[in-house]
């Protein structure tokens, strides 16, 4: 594991910023724990623009001086390799141990291949229980091909009969007819971004369904956010969630009592402009943790 050193502004002896309260994880329980996944091998395999492996470091840098006073721990980052399968399993092992210690886990990806390692950890921790994955994304990532950042949910649904897949923010022009047909075959519950915007009660309905599961884990692909505020992704979206929409949506589902963990993926610092995407990802993470701890 690669450890990260936090630094930042200090205003007084009172600890009021993230870098002043975050501590190195030493087997605590019932806590909030951050883990990084420094990988973009899945993006590379998916013929995307690489750079997401730098995100765990950059997001931490952006979180560092943000105002935050709750207890939080950081276990460090997994350094992914070209052996994507082994890297995802390593992430799964770490996530499983954290969840078995009753910790709420936040994973800083990495390409969206991060979510498969996330899933492995959730499933290992809760072997026989009914789980749902909630994905905020413009894409289904249901491709039936060599493992990449576009195959994760196909893998989950093919391997596990006890998981349901919810995805919010689907873009019609970002998914082929084959992908829509695959989603229907698997019984995926999906809503386009337009549907979310046109139906104010839709998120309430989705949340009500998710409350019926034993456990829910959530993933945010930053390419679901409009390019103007999140340019630093492999596949930026010209018409994605606004910053306000994505923050409020993550915040809303962050209050689920059965939410085990959250990952934010597809931030690519080399492709960013003025650290906009990293800053938004950092803001989302700390907003979620703040809301969860109220």
Low-confidence stretches: none
In one word, what is the shape?
globular
Largest sheet: 9 strands, parallel
Number of strands: 9
Rg calculated over all Cα atoms: 17 Å
SSE run: HEEHHEHEHEHEHEHHEHEH
Q: What is the count of helical runs?
A: 11
Descriptive report:
With 294 residues, this protein is of the alpha/beta class. The protein has helices at residues 18-21, 41-45, 55-64, 84-100, 114-125, 152-159, 177-186, 193-198, 202-210, 243-253, 276-292; strands at 22-24, 32-38, 72-79, 104-109, 131-136, 163-170, 189-192, 215-221, 259-265. Strands 1-3-2-4-9-8-5-6-7 form a nine-stranded parallel beta sheet, with helices on both faces. Helix 4 packs across helix 5 (114-125) and helix 10 runs parallel beside helix 11 (276-292). The chain is globular. The two termini are 31 Å apart. The model has no long low-confidence stretch (mean pLDDT 97).
